[in-house]
Amino acid sequence: MSAHPLAPSWLSRPDDANALAPTVWSTGSSRSASGELQIAGVPASALAAEYGTPLYVVDETDARTRARTIRESFDREFARVGSAAKVYYAGKAFLSIEVARWMLDAGLNIDVCTGGELAVALAAGADPARLGLHGNNKSLSEIDRAVGAGIGAIVIDSVIEVARVAAAAERHGRVQRVRLRINSGVHASTHEYLATAREDQKFGIPLADAAEVVALIRSHANLEFLGLHSHIGSQIFESDGFAEAARRLFDLHVALLADGPVPELNLGGGFGIAYTSVDVALPLDEIARRFADIVAGAAAERGVPVPVVAIEPGRSIIGPAGTTLYEVGTIKDVEVSVGDTGETAVRRYVSVDGGMSDNIRPALYGADYSARIAGRRSDAEPALVRVAGKHCESGDIVVRAEYLPADVHPGDLLAVPATGAYCWSLSNNYNYVGRAAVVAVRDGAAHVLIRRETEDDLLRRDAGQETP
Ligand SMILES: *Cc1c(COP(=O)(O)O)cnc(C)c1O
């Protein structure tokens, strides 16, 4: 059967619209004998019945394994080239107290970029020395709290911050380790990277000005310069952009060695994951191997020691471990024009009980996702659908295009995979919808990581509410 006229070119009609592509779904996801989706042995229907929908479900073993794999791979590959690596989990992807502990248990450090994220990591009992703080506009109080807590590293993002961090270090009688974020002119997004002399964005110090700022850092006795930092973007599928950024940073790195130690080089995060079956992500151990080769090659070319390399993955650790469960509420066939041919085709809108409040990525940057009926399997023909949310915006789309069994109906449970990163952390209260709960599943059991927000939670903050 030919493709639906409204299907995007990358999406082909599947042989089986029940199949769970192993590159997209968490490792603990499968269909049980009855055909229902289960994650780590817990049936989707049981999760929905106990915790309600929409519900974020995190496959704990998958998340912990990915964290450990990336740390072990970088340890092994950088040992191979005579150096070492430090892996920071980028907390902004998804952070809760328990998830912070999973990351620390797996031997990772944690990156935070606000006082709130710092508070979560500290509440998890993290040794502050294992935390890093970045951000282009840290408040004075955020800097003070971080330095006072004994944070391991602060990524300085502008000239003005040098004196701010030095003053906080002075107040707390500490020597604060710092990195300097560089705007390398390399920007990567998905399958392409752009390399310019000067990139138009808010983060970091231009490469050309960096030596001067490092000299300023070194002039402060209570700042210790750890090295340069670069983060070139997110959801990157190739290592070319990292290689180009590393090459650019390395010339500066070598120049800085003339005036003092530069023990580390931080290449940021941004490793891509598969959101749909057509995305092909690099395996974590392959990323580590390429990074070690890139950095060791650059060091050898310039005759300097291989620095300790720090990386900051978020999405690639927690993204594939998360799945969102929704319940289908309404279904509508909408006749729409196809191009300007005068022809029409029917698009089936399947609306679920969440949307841009729990996953804003499709509305924010056109991100694609996939979906499956979770509560059952079906032998019905695949039908092209668009999964929409319940919010008052026509751009409130969860999955732009997907083939689901044509008998999808109200009351069906729907699962959207690869929602572990940047979904809960970007969730919001649009239309006074409480943010969804997050549960972890492992070995056939589930427990709450973050409870669902209630209407009471939302009303409690409204000063107009009458007190009894
Ligand atoms: C967002 C961010 C990361 C993590 O990016 P992922 O795409 O989740 O790996 C790492 N470092 C910095 C500085 C960031 O801003």
From TrEMBL:
GO biological process, one term: lysine biosynthetic process via diaminopimelate
EC number of this enzyme: 4.1.1.20
Residues recorded as bearing N6-(pyridoxal phosphate)lysine in the entry: K92
Bilayer-crossing regions: none
Binding site for pyridoxal 5'-phosphate: G270, E312, P313, G314, R315, Y422
Superkingdom of origin organism: Bacteria
Active site annotation, chain numbering: C392
Pathway involvement of the protein, from the record: Amino-acid biosynthesis; L-lysine biosynthesis via DAP pathway; L-lysine from DL-2,6-diaminopimelate: step 1/1
Reported function: Specifically catalyzes the decarboxylation of meso-diaminopimelate (meso-DAP) to L-lysine.
Family statement: Belongs to the Orn/Lys/Arg decarboxylase class-II family. LysA subfamily.
Subunit (UniProt): Homodimer.
Protein name: Diaminopimelate decarboxylase
